[in-house]
């Protein structure tokens, strides 16, 4: 990663994350196929909902015959954390047009959010439309194509898990977290590690009482409050 | 069934889109208070930590979560690669190979 904020560098920076989208996208397509969703449904869900874990839950709930209202509420709960990420990226686009804000926000994902946060450490805390749109659009298209591919080959390949592809996403978050901790010099390494440790402990406790996605949201909020408390200005 | 699927996709897409863009609209039109800016400065590390730790755990009803052994084992070479290479691509490639090896060897 460097200090360039161009279409080309956005394309280059997002490439490593593409493996994660391909691995999980194919897995989703295969799952959707087993639940009898058509290729068109898979494509539309990837283009319209565009949210990995929510798509798995929506598909599972559709197969279980859940009412639409319940599926929508689950989607809101699973995706609620996205509002925190949008809120964090948005200040860097405050001076840009309303349309550019909506465009950048519409396709923001966990991965492109994390890339943006890494990028800030190289660009003297600047982001722009060309760079983020380019990363967002590559991610969006790769996700849609991967899910369709999974849906088409569903049943043909034995088990995508045996190839280890499902771990691509976890590995990517490990890389993004590590790079964020070492490149964000706005506070010392130790402070970052304190927040990590606090969030890890919170996750273990919270996951006794709630689903993983809700625990992620709550642990993040509490972890940020903890960070504020130990970093009083 | 078919109509229900499409309606569900459209509604879920709509709420997800609103969750993504409303913060942009709010931030564009209002000045964030200092405490919120301070709070948001912790979001990147906190949320990535939460997502990573979640992948290491398995929910067990009525108990504290258990360890996701394959993910935990594959994370070790991935973390070492991150420290050595500082390259996202290298971390992903090593992680995937490690996971394939763990499954192939039947460790998890």
Percent helix of chain B, as a range, is: over 70%
Number of strands of chain A: 0
The amount of helix of chain A comes to: over 70%
Radius of gyration of chain A, whole Å: 18 Å
Beta content of chain B: under 5%
What keyword list fits this structure?
heterodimer, A: 233 residues, mainly alpha, 2 domains, B: 108 residues, two-stranded antiparallel sheet, 5 helices, 2 strands
Polypeptide structure, described:
- Chain A folds into two domains: 7-186, no CATH class; 188-233.
- Helices cover 73% and strands 0% of the residues of chain A.
- Chain A has helices at residues 7-34, 39-48, 52-63, 68-79, 81-89, 98-106, 110-120, 129-153, 167-183, 189-206, 212-230.
- Chain A is globular and about 55 Å long.
- Chain A starts with 6 loop residues before the first helix and ends with a helix.
- Chain B has a domain at 1-30.
- Chain B contains five helices and two strands; from the N terminus they run αααββαα.
- Chain B has helices at 2-29, 34-40, 43-55, 69-85, 88-105; strands at 57-58, 66-67.
- A two-stranded antiparallel sheet of chain B has the order 1-2.
- In chain B, a hairpin with a 7-residue loop joins strand 1 and strand 2.
- In chain B, helix 4 runs antiparallel to helix 5.
Gist?
The complex is a heterodimer of chains A (233) and B (108). Chain A is an all-alpha fold and 233 residues long. In chain A, 73% of the residues lie in helices and 0% in strands.
């Amino acid at each position: 990663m460097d200090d360039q904020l161009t279409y080309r560098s956005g394309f280059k920076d997002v490439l490593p994350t593409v493996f994660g989208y391909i691995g999980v996208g194919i897995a989703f397509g295969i799952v959707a196929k087993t639940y009898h969703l058509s290729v068109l449904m898979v494509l539309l869900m990837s283009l319209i909902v565009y949210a990995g874990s929510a798509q798995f839950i929506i598909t599972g709930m559709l197969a279980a015959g859940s009412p639409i209202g319940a599926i929508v509420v689950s989607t809101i709960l699973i995706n609620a954390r996205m509002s925190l990420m949008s809120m964090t990226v948005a200040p860097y686009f405050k001076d840009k047009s309303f349309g550019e804000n909506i465009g950048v926000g519409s396709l923001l994902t966990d991965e492109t959010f994390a890339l943006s946060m890494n990028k800030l450490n190289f660009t003297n805390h600047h982001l722009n439309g060309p760079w983020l749109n380019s990363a967002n659009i590559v991610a969006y298209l790769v996700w849609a194509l991967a899910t369709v591919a999974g849906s088409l080959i569903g049943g043909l390949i034995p088990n995508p898990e045996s190839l280890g592809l499902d771990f691509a996403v976890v590995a990517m978050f490990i890389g993004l977290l590590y790079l964020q901790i070492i490149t964000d010099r706005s506070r010392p390494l130790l402070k970052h590690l304190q927040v990590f440790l606090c969030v890890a402990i919170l996750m273990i406790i919270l996951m006794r009482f709630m689903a993983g996605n809700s625990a992620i949201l709550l642990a993040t909020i509490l972890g940020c409050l903890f960070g504020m408390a130990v970093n009083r200005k | 069934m078919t109509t229900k699927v499409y309606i569900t996709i459209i509604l879920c897409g709509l709420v997800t889109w609103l969750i993504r863009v409303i913060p942009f609209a709010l931030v564009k039109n209002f000045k964030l208070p200092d405490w919120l800016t301070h709070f948001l400065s912790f979001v990147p590390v906190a949320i990535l930590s939460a997502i990573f730790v979640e992948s290491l755990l398995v929910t067990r009803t009525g108990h504290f979560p258990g360890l996701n052994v394959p993910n935990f084992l594959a994370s070790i070479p991935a973390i070492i690669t991150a420290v050595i290479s500082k390259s996202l691509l290298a971390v992903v490639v090593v992680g995937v190979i490690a996971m394939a090896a763990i499954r192939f060897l039947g460790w998890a």
